[in-house]
Amino acid sequence: MSEPINPIINDQLDALLHGETNLVANLANASALLMQTLTDINWSGFYLYQPDTDDLILGPFQGNVACVHIENNNGVCGTALATQTTQLVPDVHQFPGHIACDSASNAEIVVPLTLKDGTKLGVMDIDSPLKGRFTTADQAILEKFAAVLLSHIDKA
Ligand code: SME
């Protein structure tokens, strides 16, 4: 069993990003905070939506090198983007179309990121080597994490 995610991470993120609205800097620090704080994860980071090509491109992350382009509606990330819903995947090997970037990954959670005006920013992606790593309680905390992050980059 992994430790449940401590909701204090959301206060830490809020303090870490205080006074900064730069997208790249905030995504970089958010991915580092996730990697430093969460137990039993091997990748944390962001894919950014490109409306011109209707796909996702790799953004700031921590972990092994990863695939650069992910098509809309493909894999866990593309499904989160297309459906605009969090994808909580206890076993990635059971997820149709899962894109294996790191063979160590067995579980994954992907949260869509959308600005206040409805613009799709992309997705936040966290991978774990442990099947069943993420719970619905973790999901609620990570969705709040995404909301805190968006509040620091969304000036609309
Ligand atoms: N597994 C993801 C691809 C990104 S990596 O996990 C970093 C997916 O299926 O969309």
Automatic annotation (TrEMBL):
SUPFAM superfamilies: GAF domain-like. This is GAF domain-containing protein. Residues 32-148 form the GAF domain. The lineage of its organism: Bacteria, Bacillati, Bacillota, Bacilli, Lactobacillales. It holds the Pfam family GAF_2. InterPro entries: GAF (IPR003018), GAF-like_dom_sf (IPR029016), Phosphatase_reg/MetRdx (IPR051330). Gene3D superfamilies: 3.30.450.40. One of its GO terms (molecular function) is L-methionine-(R)-S-oxide reductase activity. It comes from the Bacteria. Belongs to the free Met sulfoxide reductase family. GO terms for cellular component: cytosol.
